[in-house]
Design brief:
The chain is built from 12 helices and 13 strands. The protein is of the alpha/beta class. The strands form 3 sheets. Strands 1-7-6-5-4-2-3 form a 7-stranded mixed beta sheet, sandwiched between helices. Strands 10-11-13-12 form a 4-stranded antiparallel beta sheet. A two-stranded antiparallel sheet has the order 8-9. The structure holds pyridoxal-5'-phosphate. Pyridoxal-5'-phosphate binds next to helix 5.
Length: 457
Amino acid sequence: MAHDFALEDNFLGSMEAGYDLPTEYLPEHAINPNIAEEAVRQYRLNEAKPNQNLTTFCTTQMEPQADRLVSEALNTNAIDKSEYPKTAAMEDNCCAMIGHMWNIPEEEKFRKDFIGTSTVGSSEGCMLGGLALLFSWKHRAQAAGLDIDDLHHHRPNLIIDSGYQVVWEKFCTYWNVEMRTVPLTGTEMSMDVDKAMSMVDENTIGIVGILGITYTGSVDDIQEIDRRLTEYNKVHTDLPVHIHVDSAYCGFFAPFVDGFKPWDFRLKNVVSINVSGHKYGMVYPGVGWIIWRKNDEEHLPSEMRFAVSYLGKSVDSIAINFSHSGAQIIGQYYNLVRFGREGYQAVMHNVRKVSMKLSEVIAGTGLFEMLTNGAELPIVTWKLRDDANVQWSLYDLEDQLLMHGWQVPAYPLPKNRDDEIIQRIVVRPSMSMTIANDFIADLKQSIEELNHKHFIK
Ligand SMILES: Cc1ncc(COP(=O)(O)O)c(C=O)c1O
């Protein structure tokens, strides 16, 4: 039955409050917008509280000033650069600032020589980075006389450590690229560079170095990969191998804290880097960035550049996605302007302090062996000690913490170490010491509850 909008717009007592919301078919009639708003809000009631979600890397809190700017820009379309030229300029400014933050050599000045784009997230950035490696390899391989249509002998391959994020599996599947994964063995939590180099051949389109392995919270030694590839490339001048760095969550963290070896454009074989703006870039999902070292055919082949003219004037389009709101670009630009180097440093310093505190307390229970302790990346991972002598598993602890509202995933390590179950906390900028202390109290309580539960069974 249709409602008259002039009638009651309170949710309580409304007809809609007595029925389920539609799930399959478009309803015949319109309803009062106030009632619709409350009904949809109630539908979301038992979703995770963002600050208790210790699983995600994604931003759950921006400043009120950013919130205002972002919501004012929600109705814009970032791709429509003739209608929104200032948003387009801010996108270019962000690319330039991020490229310089990653130490693009001064002689390769941004506006002329290097190039980048915003993306919806790192997945799109990785996809573009992989494609640029693939197309530029194809050009080199053809010039070197390889028959690239002979997939039996010349199927392209990509080398990556087995802690990769799923986007790389998608990339290799979509584009029929052989994925050569470097297994984690023994106590290794990142790429074994000797093993990686032993996999390189004339069909290798590139090595992906991960700066911030999703599963283990460690980093690949990009400096060492670069050193080894420099040696390799000296001998293989017609088919050199380059590096794409997937710094989805670390690209906005490493530049602001101590302890990371060079990993960015300081290394000359690094041709492109992606980052998620919505992780430590501190913008709401979804925004990411990819920057190429050089704006030339070698790094970003012409197959990947498209000119689009129907929006008023011809614009270059590199990204895969077309229409999306300009709001996240505005949010990113706001953050860069607002925080600057000093502000990002202050935020990341706190993130590291909280990570180390959490790690210290978790280790202090005597039950867990820490795999990463937050001293490098803001990821704290642990497993149960062999001598923990408890009747419960990390999966039980995950469930118990959820009863206190905290989401802390337990999962197996990647291939070759997948019999080891670990648990992980991602410390985000919004996790103040107060929230960390609340978590610690609930962790201790959860352990007691589990011990008790299993004791009385
Ligand atoms: C290393 C790595 N690469 C890629 C991604 C995908 O990023 P996004 O969620 O921004 O698409 C992630 C996400 O966690 C990641 O950790």
